[in-house]
Amino acid sequence: MPRRSDIHKILLIGSGPIVIGQGCEFDYSGTQACKALKEEGYEVVLINSNPATIMTDPEVADRTYIEPLTFEYVSKLIELERPDALLPTLGGQTALNLAVKLAEEGVLKKYNVEMLGASLEAIKKAEDRELFKAAMKKIGLDVPKSMTVTSHEEARVAVKALGYPIIIRPAFTLGGSGGNISYSEEDFERMVESGLIASPIRQLLLEESILGWKEFELEVMRDKKDNVVIICSIENLDPMGIHTGDSITVAPQQTLTDREYQVMRDASIKVIREIGVDTGGSNIQFGVDPKNGRQVVIEMNPRVSRSSSLASKATGFPIAKIAAKLAIGYTLDELPNDITKETMAAFEPTIDYVVTKIPRFAFEKFPHTSPMLTTQMKSVGEAMAIGRTFEESLLKALRSLECGWKGLDPIAGASPGEVMKRLREPTPDRILWVGEAFRQGIGVEEVYELTKIDPWFLHKISAIVKTGDTHFQKSSCPRSFRTVDTCAAEFIAYTPYFYSTIGEEDDLLARGTQGLWLFWAPAPIASARG
Amino acid sequence: MVILGSGPNRIGQGIEFDYACVQASFALRELGVKSVMVNCNPETVSTDYDTSDKLYFEPLTFNDVLPIIEREKPRGVIVQFGGQTPLKLALALKKAGAPIIGTDPNDIDRAENRKLFNEIIEKLKLKQPEGATATNVDEAVAVAERIGYPVLVRPSYVLGGRAMEIVYDQNGLEFYMKYAVKASPEHPVLVDRFLKSATEIDVDALSDGSDVYVAGIMEHIEEAGIHSGDSSCVLPPHSLPENVVKEIERQTIMLAKELNVIGLMNIQFAVQNGEIYILEVNPRASRTVPFVSKATGLSLARIATKVMLGHKLKDLVSLRGAIAPKQSPELNMGDCHAPSGLAMTKHYSVKTPVFPFNKFPGVDTILGPEMKSTGEVMGIAETFGEAFAKAQEAAGNKLPSHGSIFISIKDTDKEAIIPIAVSLIESGFNVVATRGTKMFLHEHGVPATGINKLLEGPPHIVDALKNKKIQLVINTTAGRPSIGDSYSIRRTALERGVPYFTTIEGAKAAAESVKIVKRNAGAINIKPIQKYNLDY
Predict the structure, then answer these.
(1) Which of A468-477, B158-167, B235-244, B378-387 has the lowest mean pLDDT?
(2) Is the N end or the C end of chain A the one with fewer CB atoms within 10 Å?
(3) Chain A contacts in chain B segment 100-159 (CB below 8 A)
(4) CATH of range B130-193; options 3.30.70.580, 3.30.1490.20, 2.30.30.50, 3.40.50.10190
């Protein structure tokens, strides 16, 4: 289907300042969306209060407002600019919350602005815990047992039914702000209080604990013809109980059997259809009980999310760009993949490497805070690395963090007692303590009991420690370069996006024996230093 | 050309540096030069596969970067846009034969190495706060005794003010040297006189080796001593006298030429009683580059990239006539007759930081020399007051239009609070204060209602905040953050979303802002930045 010609001017809402839980990934998605819409000939109006973004560069949108992202300012903007449509799914939770308010207060209706991507109904269904759970039950999917409360009294009743430990999640917040895990009556009241304050609608979800379960995310896209593709699967190395943004994550997923993975895929397709995100990307999170494989749906973001940018970089599939094009009428089978030029966006990416992301924290800036990782996101950034194996990508990611780590560095003078304690309590450097545990001869089973990190990962880490991690990252080893091509070399790739690996051979594109690199002439430039 | 990116985001090195790297890539495209990006941060635009001609998703360490350079054999490697990450690699890469372009790594080192930098300051007859380096406790104490307390202490070579502190006495200094830093001959600690109540100025400038373009002079709203990344700032300066601005411009030009800057540089000045001191010079892209670019409509990083490739500033920006240096018999002003441009906009742009305090339960919200903000917002308007109000609102700290204001301040701020309180009362607010401050205000004819301190029992100020009886908090504290009373006030204000100011300058700007917003009857004036930039 061709692009829509009944709309001309589209408003895009950015995500505002960089805060914990909403970082520059939305600059990436917003910039891609602006470019995609302009490419299609639409007039793009952008509002974002953050001057440090690429998207607020004067040439990215047609008209750029660096103004506060509040209901009053966006309403005024709509009154002045009279856009035909609003695309709210690329500016994180900030943009989505604003869009909901604009719709509910009748501003969109008054100025005849159409909401693209996801309808108000779909957003509510995905974000309201009760509606979401009801929807999951309707399509036969399992969810953690939970209760929604709006006061201390209701919270006390709920905790009696669900027991400790119990998860406290405030509704409508960024990065799980105000979220917590309570282990006993002692801290319960306090956590309920701060959760109620954090939620703009003073609503909390109290949930059965699935701490220690395995956690997965699928990045899913849907078009208006109801085609659905899975872009990427991501597995959290850290178990449930640590916010995804604070977890080490790996793509593609490593520890599910094919059967289990197919069940998860089918479930995610059902979820996006039932919630009714008409066009665009969504992120769906699952928990898996390691004891019996029971899968539960945890939540869904009916928009482009932090994980979408990770998935885009991990696969080479530009989720935000495609989401913008789907919003204006194209379908997945009509949009070509930039990298291969031959396949269409409906072609699911295949990857022949492993991607690891490790979050970066800033606890040293806030003395007197506990560096414990919980369901409330606290990291301020992340590094990602690509390798041929999990081992290689983990070590590269550790180096990329710039925390002064060369890999799984030994921890000098760590007593066995301390090692046990640090395995039990997740902190930013727990991965190093896992390595140290193996160095000290602690077994995989015991480390699993303390960390709930899947034994598959533990065996790999143990192997790295035993062989000596220098084996995987010797600087003297010859390196080869390989291409991120979305298709595991099934088709020719035209976009030079590379990663290095120790040994092996350069692949075709990296060797420069095909495609556009053949025609590269050195550009004439003047040396700046004379 | 290879561009080295800024790695994972952290406090002190965030999206601003990715912005600069992406601009460099765009500039290369404009010139028809092939670009190769190296970075490992998946959240960024720089790691989008179509930002540059080639993308290497790799760690930014020497061992990982060198094979890429050996393989690509670039004409140049750009290290000045990605913050400290690529800068740390610059010297080693140069030694390994990488063609680093722009300011020479040795000149970068001259600016960052304290001893070499002192020589430059002396040669140019400029001023900086007295100070010296120390490699152990005794040396540090000796320096502090010579220059007098309070002193500003920090490890050399850091970004974002890591472990930077203001120390008020010998005990504090000994504690800092023993526990806060690992000082050594290779990693000395800088001990400088702390300039009390000074105004801090940030300058971003471009140089091509012969011409210098002073692209933005930003006046900080918070006083010196608060990390520049945590301070709000305004462009153009709203309260500096013209002669001070001119002098800052002149000194910027001298430093740019002395350091042979090719590309971007950032200088931090402090102005105390009309005297100008140089706090820091960084011959690289700074955190404020995107802000200045948006405020003035010129992409500084893009221009800098072109300059680094040999283009001349005079072909890229309009340089105003030469600025005549001050004639002074004992100063040899030699070769600073550089033509320069100074971007002065008719509108005001205010940058305000955003903090993650709500993510860290119990953390104090007081600001200091160590950077804590994760992001920033900008307010742009015809007047300073409006721009400041917009920035506050964008940062989630919307200024109230009526109600009660709670004032609790340290003794040294008491004189300064009077005009602020008067202005707020004129705008229709009531002032609420604890006993001491109330008495002081009454003595100066300012009406105020009393309220109990936390320790004096209920109903106290924290109750009033919880009950939404207070709409704005002005709370300044002396020295080390006082615990108890004032901490609970700040924390409660944060949790309840009551706007608060912990510096007197912030309060002053807020009062001015409230007045203007009131005069405009709350009308919302917005304009696309494309239009602001056409206006001059």
Answers:
(1) A468-477
(2) C
(3) 101-102, 104
(4) 3.30.1490.20
